[in-house]
Amino acid sequence: MGAENPSKEWRAVHIGFEGDGLKIGGVDIWKQDWRRVKMNPLRLPHPAYPQQTHSYEVYDAGGETQIVRFAASELSNGVWGFYVPAQN
Q1: What's the CA gap between 29 and 19, in Å, rounded?
Q2: Where are the extended beta strands (E) located within the chain?
Q3: What is the pTM of this model?
Q4: Half-sphere exposure of residue 74, counting CA atoms within 13 Å on the CB side?
Q5: pLDDT tens sequence across 43-55
Q6: pLDDT of residue 67
């Protein structure tokens, strides 16, 4: 993934509260261990306020048969924003 404009390579999928039942690709994100991907954090817009940018870490989650990759950032206390790769 290129670092020049990561917002074209990622798409926003969710903004919500921690533990809210979010599923990405059928995987309940809040019931999984998140494994941080070894790459620099992404600077991406807030899903609801695109004029604000935040630092998003990239994670993998899921089991042996279904792994999903996503970027997440705690935007404010207990409120999270999520992105997935644009090709997903």
Answers
A1: 8
A2: 10-17, 23-24, 27-28, 35-36, 42-45, 53-62, 67-76, 79-85
A3: 0.89
A4: 5
A5: 999 999 999 999 9
A6: 93
Q: Put residue 26 in one of left, alpha, beta given phi > 0 → left and psi -120 to 50 → alpha.
A: left
DSSP H helical segments within the chain, as ranges? none
Tokens matching residue 4: 């020049």
Going by C-alpha positions, the residue among 19, 87, 80 that lies closest to residue 48 is: 80
Distance CA 56, CA 84 (A): 11
Phi, psi of 55 (to 5 degrees): -90, 125
For the CA atoms of 23, 24, 27, 29, the dihedral, rounded to the nearest 10 degrees, stands at -70
